[in-house]
């Protein structure tokens, strides 16, 4: 556990706090929730900054960072659906995309490689944070300018989510295909070595 990973873990624990602030009827809840969102966004920037500066980029960090982002954004959007601020079908697309990409990352990890966040994925994340920020600040006035701006940005976020998901699937397929071709090439080489060995010594017992 280093500083960048510690910041990432702290973002995971800020997600339930954001939900509590949004769904309780406390006075100025939107301001407190917005402050938590800003703090979480700051950790998202700082963990990458310190990881690069201190040369502490780790596989654990690459896996935890997108999980922390997905937990925070999913918690925020689902809370906004509960408050009738964000349309449920849009949030289903956004959260569904996050689950799909997480599944791809898990399969990739099992296959021995990682799929790092793409530039478009980072733009998507930034757009989500900005969108959630407007929607959170507009909780008290659902028909106000902030809420209307947030709902307009929500369309942009949905489009970015779908496009970036297609990009992740494409990158995942390419890596899986390359991994399969490499394994097949190794098997073919092993088979050729066995055949050559058998030709030199026909009475030899083939390897298992």
What is the CA-based Rg, rounded? 23 Å
Q: Largest sheet at a glance?
A: none
- The total of helices stands at 6
**CATH superfamily grouping:** CDP-alcohol phosphotransferase transmembrane (TM) domain
Shape: elongated
Strand elements, count: 0
Distance from first to last alpha carbon: 43 Å
How would you explain this protein's 3D organization?
The protein has helices at 3-23, 29-53, 59-82, 88-110, 119-137, 145-200. The protein has 208 residues and is an all-alpha fold. The longest helix has 56 residues, at 145-200. The protein starts with a helix and ends in an 8-residue tail after the last helix. The model has no long low-confidence stretch (mean pLDDT 81).
């Amino acid at each position: 556990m280093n500083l960048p990973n510690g910041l990432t873990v702290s973002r995971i624990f800020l997600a339930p706090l954001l939900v509590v602030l949004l769904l309780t009827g406390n006075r100025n809840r939107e301001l407190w929730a917005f402050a938590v969102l800003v703090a979480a966004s700051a950790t998202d920037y700082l963990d990458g900054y310190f990881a690069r500066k201190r040369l502490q980029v780790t596989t654990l960090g690459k896996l935890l960072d997108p999980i922390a982002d997905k937990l925070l954004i999913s918690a925020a959007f689902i809370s906004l659906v509960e408050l009738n601020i964000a349309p449920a079908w849009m949030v289903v697309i956004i959260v569904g995309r996050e689950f799909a990409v997480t599944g791809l990352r898990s399969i990739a990890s099992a296959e021995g490689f990682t799929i790092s966040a793409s530039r478009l994925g980072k733009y998507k994340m930034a757009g989500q944070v900005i969108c959630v920020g407007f929607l959170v600040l507009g909780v008290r006035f659902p028909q106000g300018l902030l809420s209307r701006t947030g709902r307009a940005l929500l369309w942009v976020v949905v489009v970015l989510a779908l496009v970036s998901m297609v990009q992740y699937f494409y990158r995942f397929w390419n890596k899986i295909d390359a991994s399969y071709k490499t394994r097949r090439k190794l098997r073919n080489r092993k088979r050729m070595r066995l055949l050559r060995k058998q030709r030199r010594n026909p009475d030899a017992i083939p390897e298992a």
